[in-house]
Amino acid sequence: MSAVTPLLHLDAVSYAxxxxxxxxxxxxRVRAGEFVAIVGPSGCGxxxxxxxCSGWLTPTAGTVRRAGRARTVFQHDGLFxxxxxxxNVRLGLRHLPPTTERDERTIDWLALVGLxxxxxxxxxxxxxxxxxxAELARALAGETDLLLMDExxxxxxxxxxxxxxxxxxxxxxxxxxxxxxxxxxxxxxxQLADRVLVLSDRPAxxxxxxxxDVPRPRxxxxxxxxxxxxxxxxxxxxxxxxxxxxxxxxxxxxxESRSR
Amino acid sequence: xxxxxPRTLPLLGLAGPLALVLxxxxxxxxxxFPSSLFPHPGTVARGLVTELASGRLLQDVIASLFRVGxxxxxxxxxxxxxxxxxxxxxxxxAAWLPLVNFFRxxxxxxxIPFAILWLGIGDPPAIFLIFMAGVFPVVIATTAAVAGIPxxxxxxxxxxxxxxxxxxxxxxxxxxxxxxxxxLRVTAGLSWLVVVAAEMIAGRDGLGFxxxxxxxxxxxxxxxxxxxxxxxxxxxxDRVLRQLSQIPSVRWGYER
Lengths: 260, 256
Prior knowledge:
The complex is a heterodimer.
Chain A: E1 8-17, E2 20-30, E3 35-39, H1 46-54, E4 61-66, E5 70-73, H2 85-91, H3 100-112, H4 128-141, E6 146-150, H5 158-174, E7 178-182, H6 186-192, E8 195-199, E9 206-211, H7 223-235, H8 254-259
Parallel strand pairs in A: 3-7, 3-8, 5-6, 6-7
Antiparallel strand pairs in A: 1-2, 1-4, 8-9
Chain B: H1 5-8, H2 15-29, H3 41-54, H4 56-88, H5 90-104, H6 112-119, H7 123-147, H8 151-159, H9 164-202, H10 207-216, H11 220-242, H12 252-255
Helix pairs in contact in B: 3-11, 4-5, 4-7, 4-9, 4-10, 5-7, 6-7, 7-9, 9-10, 9-11, 10-11
């Protein structure tokens, strides 16, 4: 992994809100094309990591190196409510000359996320799931190299969340991107990511690193996904046993030790 | 959601005024009050017609609307930029909001003597008073609107490479538009109240002066007629400004 220059590299990054240390000497490398999910207890600094990746926050120590364009998909209400869905997506195409090409690409992107016919609608006229799809289209439309996702589906109901998850997996299959996903949904992380970083309580450290060596897209009930969910839950201290009543495995796991 | 009632039954809004006129007509026909103190609606209507025919009422209407228009535009022309500056900076807010609040709570009518001393009689003092009535509420409302813009919009704007003038035009202004429109309606209403008081004291024409003139001439029929005109025009101004809230790109501020 270290042989390839990472697209995103958090090099010994620390961050503090005033006197409160949120991150301490965090080291994260994300390769081009990789999907990395970050899970951890609430308030552990997951979103702070994403804000450091996007450049919205500057680390108090260490450096963030990033190649290419980054865009963030937010938890909710990231669309500009005063613009139609089409106009929002069109803003994502600002790198293109303002010709008919922007209009055509807007229509393409809306079709790609299943929102054909909704270009003239305003965000408040759409359901939460449709809004998140539109936001995803706007973020991806910019030929984004790095897609940062801040709990993008957490404000949706469970079934919509499952649907959007598999749509994201399909989209990334067609339009590969490097992704960093912050989530508290462990199943989501295990289904979507190549690698899941399990964080500790504040100040956040990487407690465990779970690699899922099965090609994407995957089903949420794929054995490797279930296995990864179990491993993550164990890493978070929320589960002790192994599935199927196998012997209790003490933390840290062999894989975790290897990743250090 | 908007209620269907007022839209599907536009004539229902006339029930109240009609009832009022009927009660008014009945009260004065029965002679409950001396006619020198309580004009009959018919007399008022005749007075209204003669004033309209003479053209004087129209001149007063134009004079008042001009003063309100200029004072109101000055108030929003100064108030909105000032609110944008204050809204973006907590330091500026800490430094200036106490002063703005002081003037906000100082009745514009208290300025009338100074307005006359400094600016004499006619358009300038009235415009000054309307400006003083409007500018501080606009500053405060705009400041609050800007300070309350969710930071996620600025983060998205940063991702999309919007900055400087484009950030103001494409993010900040549309984000505060619904609240600013509401403030414009309130401020226009306030201006309409103030212009009458200003013209009563510092005017030689305008609807406020017409009220005062009718009172001095003991023409209570004209007094009531001018009052009706003032009220109707105030409603009309608000109706016009309310159309701003029908612009599609600001509907989100009222519907969600």
